[in-house]
């Protein structure tokens, strides 16, 4: 039996989601742009999904643009704003702990003449709102920050920043990468002052390769993908009907469970167990409200995370070393470096991430395998 504790990398498809996806694939296979009945019914499924997702954010359906996931949504938002306002200003504010799908587009913009300021987190991994707001200038066209950090679980004060930005004239566009928070935290773009918001289906038990970008009406970012003019011209390409349907089904399911009621006690159990292991510490904010309980980053002194992840995997326990996104690149995670960890220390970090699928048996399996791994390593080390 597998103990899956890597829910920030991706989540298991819900049975009702996989059913809805298969049904759409098999039965509603028409092109949504076609005018015959099969096209019309595919179009109806997409628009139904759009309404469902929009209502989760209390926004208008036309403000939801379907994309291939969080990465595309972030690229579309950042390059869109840069193109739209390049003449107004070339200053961008972000945090130093963003996902690569934000940092990489920004570094491309920096190479094209934009000035990008990365606000460093405090040592615990939190990012105070005033640190972000203090960087805003007359020529700031974009502030982009994530809501929940995927590696260490910091919760960033997007509501305070969004509201604070209202005091600036001209007001910069505010983009939020909500991939790790959508479906878990209350997010109200209008109330919070968010203009653009990225989300992804596969982090909420939906299918991979599908997501959306909320685009506040009135913000006329230029199209990202050119072609047939789908998605109000913003994102051409035949719509991923089954993916969109699956994402909406996953959003519908969110109300079925008490996410925090399940996840918080499990987090506590894992934390308490891990703290009994010598040399084990928590990386990331520790103050209630500043960390997301579903993401727990642990450093086990003297044990390489990668070794640990492989050992735990052999025991049927699935976790990540640092961020799964960095396994392609090698080198220490920029997020852990931003928290002040030296490369050797960053290599000793693993991430446990929880979902409603988890129970005590997963937490206990993790803890006993972790203990075993640490014991084994130390014997080898001493020998
Ligand atoms: C914070 C954050 N942003 C963006 C992404 C990218 O989303 P996707 O996998 O849908 O491209 C991820 C996924 O790992 C993430 O954790």
Write a brief structural summary.
By secondary structure, the protein is of the alpha/beta class.
Question: What does this protein look like?
Answer:
The chain has 383 residues and is an alpha/beta fold. The chain is 39% helix and 15% strand. It is built from 13 helices and 13 strands. It has helices spanning 15-27, 37-56, 70-85, 100-111, 129-133, 158-165, 189-192, 241-253, 259-275, 305-314, 334-338, 343-346, 360-382, and strands spanning 3-4, 64-67, 91-95, 115-119, 140-146, 173-177, 196-200, 211-215, 280-283, 295-300, 317-318, 320-321, 349-353. The chain has a 7-stranded mixed beta sheet, sandwiched between helices. The chain has a 4-stranded antiparallel beta sheet with strand order 9-10-13-12, covered by helices on one side. Strand 5 (140-146), helix 6 (158-165) and strand 6 (173-177) form a beta-alpha-beta unit. The longest helix is centred in the last third of the chain and has 23 residues, at 360-382. The relative contact order is 0.16. The model has no long low-confidence stretch (mean pLDDT 95). The site of pyridoxal-5'-phosphate (PLP) has 14 residues, from helix 3.
């Amino acid at each position: 039996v597998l103990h899956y504790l890597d829910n920030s990398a991706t989540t298991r498809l819900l049975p009702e989601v996989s059913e809805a996806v298969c049904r759409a694939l098999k039965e509603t296979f028409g092109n949504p742009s076609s005018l015959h009945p099969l096209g019309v019914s595919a179009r109806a499924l997409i628009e139904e999904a759009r309404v469902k997702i929009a209502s989760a954010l209390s926004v208008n359906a036309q403000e939801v643009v379907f994309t291939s996931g969080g990465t595309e949504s972030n690229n579309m938002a950042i390059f869109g704003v840069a193109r739209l306002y390049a003449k107004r200003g070339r200053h961008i504010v972000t945090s130093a702990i963003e996902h690569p799908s934000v940092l990489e587009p920004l570094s491309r913009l920096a190479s094209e003449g934009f000035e990008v300021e990365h606000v460093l987190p405090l040592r615990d991994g939190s990012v105070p709102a005033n640190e972000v707001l203090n960087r805003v200038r007359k020529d700031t066209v974009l502030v982009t920050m994530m809501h929940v950090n995927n590696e260490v679980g910091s919760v960033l004060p997007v509501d305070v920043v969004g509201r604070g930005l209202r005091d600036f004239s001209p007001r910069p566009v505010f983009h939020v990468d909500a991939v790790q928070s959508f479906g878990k935290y209350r997010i109200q773009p209008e109330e919070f002052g968010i203009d653009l918001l990225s989300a992804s289906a596969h982090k909420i038990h939906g299918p991979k390769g599908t997501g959306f970008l909320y685009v506040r009406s009135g913000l006329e970012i230029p199209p990202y993908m050119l072609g047939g003019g789908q998605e109000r011209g913003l994102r051409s390409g035949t719509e991923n009907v089954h993916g969109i349907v699956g994402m909406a089904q996953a959003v519908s399911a969110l109300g079925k469970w008490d996410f925090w009621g399940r996840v918080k006690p499990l987090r506590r159990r894992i934390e308490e167990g891990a703290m009994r292991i010598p040399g084990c510490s928590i990386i990331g904010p520790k103050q209630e409200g500043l960390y997301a309980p579903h993401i727990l980053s642990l450093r086990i002194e003297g044990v390489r995370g990668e070794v640990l992840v492989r050992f735990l995997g052999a025991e049927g326990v699935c976790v990540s070393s640092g961020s799964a996104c960095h396994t392609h690149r090698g080198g220490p995670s920029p997020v852990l470096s931003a928290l002040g960890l030296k490369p050797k220390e960053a290599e000793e970090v693993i991430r446990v991430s929880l979902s409603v699928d988890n129970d005590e048996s997963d937490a206990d399996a993790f803890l006993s395998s972790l203990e075993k791994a640490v014991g084994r390593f130390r014997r080898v080390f001493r020998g």
